User: Fold this.
Amino acid sequence: MGLANGVHHLALCTGDVKAQIEFFTDVLGAELKALYWMHGVDNTFHGFLKLNDHSYVAFVQNARIADIEPQLGVSHAANPGEPSAPGTMQHVAFNVDSEDELLALRDRIRDRGVNVMGPLDHGMCKSIYFAGPEGLNLEISTSERGIDERAWIDPEVASLAGISEDDLARYTRPATYEGHGGAVPQPLIDPTKPHMRYPTEAYERLMTMPDDVLTARLSQPEPPVPVSETTSS
Assistant:
């Protein structure tokens, strides 16, 4: 309990949501599952492409995004091994369940005229690499089994990262957490903790609003197109 078990969606900004949808549906075979006005954000599209029923690639488009000039090493990494600014995405790797599926997807990507490198055998996984629209660095990976930390945590790298033996013990075996049924109150705003970048007054108002009030005021559960149970797929 209290543990995320996968990635529900990865949200990426785009200046051309149609081009991204075209690429991900045609080249990668992902199904478009949602395209609507983003909740709580003015004049912004939000699109979801399915990896599975619980995992999606999402795109966000508005007029301001198209005016932001990408900069290699700042907003984007030049390739899957190059740097970009802290907090930005260097590359994203999608999963397939076998090497046969990896090669089949490589065939599909190449059949669409997109160059692919690999597979490369990294020991813990095998991967292929290629580019997507707007400078995305993309990877498809497959692993035969879970990663064994005894073989894959390099003591030299851990030491250089300032990670002690005690730290490693905590990191490899995080403390369990039972939860309190949602009863833990919102903590006071601590400037030493990470925070979302809202205007100060708005952020303080959101973080001090009772949970049930915030849920009632800001939730938008109805889809943009009504679908009856008899006609839904």
About this structure: The CA atoms of residues 2 and 233 lie 32 Å apart. The chain has a mean pLDDT of 93.
